[in-house]
Amino acid sequence: MIKLGIPSKGRLMEDTFAWFAARGVTLARTGSDREYAAEVSGVDGVSLVLLSAGEIPRELAAGRIHLGVTGTDMVREKMPLWFEKTETLAEMGFGHADLIIAVPNFWVDVETVDDLDAAAAAFRKEHGFRLRIATKYHRLVREYLQKHGVADYQLVDSQGATEGTVANLTAEAVADITSTGATLEANHLRMLSDGPILASQATLFASKVADWTDCDLAGLTRVLGLENTDIG
Amino acid sequence: MDRVRQQTERLSALFRDAGAVPVETSVLQPADTLLDLYGEDIRARAYVTSDPVLGEQMLRPDFTVPVVQRHMADGAEPARYTYQGLVFRKQEAGTGRASEYLQVGYEVFDRSDPASADAEVFALFAEALQGAPVQAETGDIGVLIAAVAGLSTTERRRAALLRHLWRPGRFRALLERFSQALTRVIPSVRAEVPEIGMRSVAEVEARLVALREDAQTAPLDAVELRALQAVLEVSDMAPIALAQLREIAQDLPAIKPALDRFEARLAALAKRGVDVDALPFSGTYGRTTMEYYDGFVFGFHAGNPVPVATGGRYDALTRVLGQGREIPAVGGVIRPELLEALL
Q: Which residues are the signal sequence here (chain A) (predicted)?
């Protein structure tokens, strides 16, 4: 039996249902709205597990689910060696979001990550501490800034309302997911011009560490119209 | 395991015989000191934990910082210390590198004769590693610093280059930018955009002034730039490398005092029986390690990317941690587990 993990609520769940439905596989929640149980029809040998989108990378990495739908951002942030532990079966074309760095709009001197580095040096000299960047994507942001040789910054953890941290004086800049940029604009922030750290979208991942015995992946990919993938 | 313990003991005894006082440091170190020193990169490399009373703590990623702090607080001069114990470093998944490992170290705080102290540490390490199939590598961050500090350009540009000395990619990008005439259009502050956060509009203005000034700055002198690049490319046995650097100094005279120190060190090394004619020197050695070395740097390698022993001079670190006081310092560590694996 293939265990398929999908997001348990919201837009991401609905879009996932629609994506599978368009390929002849019906996923449906059973019982009450509050009960996290679901069933699959249109293909045999697949069972559904509803999970929070943020937990799906962990379950894939542990091999407790065979397939999972989540954002690329989640997998890269939460799963070291993601490329060894997972295989991308399909980019699903929704849930688009970019991980970006944004600074206050009035910082006209800071357009690129290069400028951010120079501003960070001056900021540290002036204030005696490193320029703070609020984010929940510590790993991705740190790797990006390290690769671009940025110094004199520090990451501060922000698990929500990240765009508000600058006005609240708990950070000088933010690194967060954005799809339209509207939240940034409303908070008087502007993204750097270098392009996103990562362009993310909802993706169907297969776990390479799960036990695939008695699982008919070829059967499922055929039904879904995907390329046949040899896992494990 | 027993052999590693014996190896650790042997190294420690050797360092004690050389006059070092054994010291111990806590495994838990205050994170803010280390973060301030190394920057955010250390958070990716050190284990961070929090204590309700002590605040954010790190499992010691090295001994140097606590040993320097201890010396700056109440050490008599001159001083020689040795320590042994575990350090903890997170490793990238898949590298297979140890995330906790032993270090045995030797540190010298002595302002009388830096060249002699450099030679003392190197010769002692060479002796400690005798019989192991290792190859020494050396460099001198001091020459590099002097080369940058000697460029005839603005103080701001020199400071920017020095700040990124340890990030070769960014350093190269800066050199490239400073070698061309700038075409960037410098914007002005727009009054209608709200000011938010701690970085003030005055700070933005100040940087705009800096950018405008920088746009007026002449590109780096081509002769000096070539000389700086030549310094980075030097790679030969130490005396030949020194001769090459002397040549380069004709175009970049600011490195002469650093070269005199290099020469004095070679003499001191030879005096201690080190065969300097067979000692490799590279202009970039030590440039991608932790950014506190600012003079002589050395390592002993055995083919493996992780060196068995490393060390160097870190005068500036004592200045940072000494709150106004400073003392020339040089030292290094040997990893007994790696050494034992070679024997």
A: none
